[in-house]
């Protein structure tokens, strides 16, 4: 017959007691009012960023007949309209490049840039339920909106390749700089979009300012007319590249269509894009802890 003897735990020697797994201690403390962007924290939530990007892509084309074809139709239809009014009626010259291809190569990156800023500017207000219930780096929300725009841009690049083949235009070796230029546009869109997203939480007027701002910005950028080397002369050649979309879009069209690269405008626009990203994310980090209370 087996006898079971109960021994109080507090009387057992420490060597006999089972070892407990150490639980990591996480200290949650308020951060400083102004802080530099924490890339390690963003990297830790990279799966969430990818999920939100894919969510935005699916929501955008949910219950649509054409689906992802709208990513191509938007710049394509705009190109057709501008080709009729500027190339046929106004006789606007585009140099050796056929005007429809010239316009599409400028409208393609601009459409990505404008849509990314508009979506990012409205993203935080549109995610109020998520922000008020779960903790994660809030900057992921506008970054996901910009990332979803990159998917549309990649799809529309296929149409650009078709038009280039149809017109017999081929890029030069400078095409290797295209990813750098697209990265600059992405960084600038993320910075401006994050700034507008933070401002839109506190001041809902910005929901009306954003579309108006993008309309004005488009005509300050060489999307449908000659590039920076033809437009900028004298002091304007030093000032216009301060608009990041000016130098980046003009040089994107140059490297894709085999034109002349403007290294000065490219360098200045890339620097301004980095500065915009720093300012936008810095302000976003400054005010993000009050989003759940205001939104």
From TrEMBL:
<dbReference type="InterPro" id="IPR047817">
    <property type="entry name" value="ABC2_TM_bact-type"/>
</dbReference>
<feature type="transmembrane region" description="Helical">
    <location>
        <begin position="264"/>
        <end position="284"/>
    </location>
</feature>
<keyword id="KW-0997">Cell inner membrane</keyword>
<keyword id="KW-0812">Transmembrane</keyword>
<feature type="transmembrane region" description="Helical">
    <location>
        <begin position="231"/>
        <end position="252"/>
    </location>
</feature>
<feature type="transmembrane region" description="Helical">
    <location>
        <begin position="139"/>
        <end position="170"/>
    </location>
</feature>
<comment type="similarity">
    <text>Belongs to the ABC-2 integral membrane protein family.</text>
</comment>
<feature type="transmembrane region" description="Helical">
    <location>
        <begin position="99"/>
        <end position="118"/>
    </location>
</feature>
<feature type="transmembrane region" description="Helical">
    <location>
        <begin position="176"/>
        <end position="199"/>
    </location>
</feature>
<protein>
    <recommendedName>
        <fullName>Transport permease protein</fullName>
    </recommendedName>
</protein>
<keyword id="KW-0472">Membrane</keyword>
<keyword id="KW-1133">Transmembrane helix</keyword>
<keyword id="KW-1003">Cell membrane</keyword>
<dbReference type="InterPro" id="IPR013525">
    <property type="entry name" value="ABC2_TM"/>
</dbReference>
<feature type="transmembrane region" description="Helical">
    <location>
        <begin position="65"/>
        <end position="87"/>
    </location>
</feature>
<dbReference type="GO" id="GO:0140359">
    <property type="term" value="F:ABC-type transporter activity"/>
</dbReference>
<feature type="transmembrane region" description="Helical">
    <location>
        <begin position="206"/>
        <end position="225"/>
    </location>
</feature>
<feature type="domain" description="ABC transmembrane type-2">
    <location>
        <begin position="66"/>
        <end position="287"/>
    </location>
</feature>
<dbReference type="GO" id="GO:0015920">
    <property type="term" value="P:lipopolysaccharide transport"/>
</dbReference>
<dbReference type="GO" id="GO:0005886">
    <property type="term" value="C:plasma membrane"/>
</dbReference>
<dbReference type="Pfam" id="PF01061">
    <property type="entry name" value="ABC2_membrane"/>
</dbReference>
<keyword id="KW-0813">Transport</keyword>
């Amino acid at each position: 017959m087996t006898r079971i003897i109960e021994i109080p735990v507090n009387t057992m020697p420490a060597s006999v007691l089972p070892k407990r797994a150490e639980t990591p201690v996480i200290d949650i403390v308020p951060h400083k009012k102004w802080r530099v962007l924490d890339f390690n924290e963003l990297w830790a939530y990279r799966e969430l960023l990818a999920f939100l990007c894919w969510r935005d892509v699916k929501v955008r084309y949910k219950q649509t007949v054409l689906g992802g074809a709208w990513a191509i139709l938007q710049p394509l239809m705009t190109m057709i309209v501008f080709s009729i009014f500027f190339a046929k009626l106004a006789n606007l010259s585009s140099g050796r490049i056929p005007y429809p291809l010239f316009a599409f190569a400028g409208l393609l990156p601009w459409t990505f840039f404008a849509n990314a800023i508009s979506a990012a500017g409205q993203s935080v207000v549109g995610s109020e339920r998520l922000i008020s219930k779960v903790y994660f780096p809030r900057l992921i929300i506008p970054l996901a909106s910009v990332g979803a725009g990159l998917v549309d841009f990649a799809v529309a690049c296929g149409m650009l390749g078709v038009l280039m083949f149809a017109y017999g235009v081929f890029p030069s070796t400078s095409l290797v700089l295209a990813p750098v230029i697209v990265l600059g546009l992405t960084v600038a869109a993320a910075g401006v979009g994050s700034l507008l997203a933070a401002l839109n939480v506190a001041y809902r007027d910005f929901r009306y300012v954003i579309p108006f701002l993008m309309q004005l910005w488009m005509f300050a950028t060489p999307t449908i007319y000659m590039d920076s080397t033809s437009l900028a002369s004298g002091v304007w050649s030093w000032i216009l590249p301060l608009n990041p979309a000016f130098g980046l879009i003009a040089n994107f069209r140059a490297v894709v269509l085999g034109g002349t690269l403007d290294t000065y405008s490219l360098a200045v626009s890339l620097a301004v894009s980095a500065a915009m990203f720093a300012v936008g994310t810095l302000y976003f980090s400054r005010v993000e802890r009050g989003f759940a209370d205001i939104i």
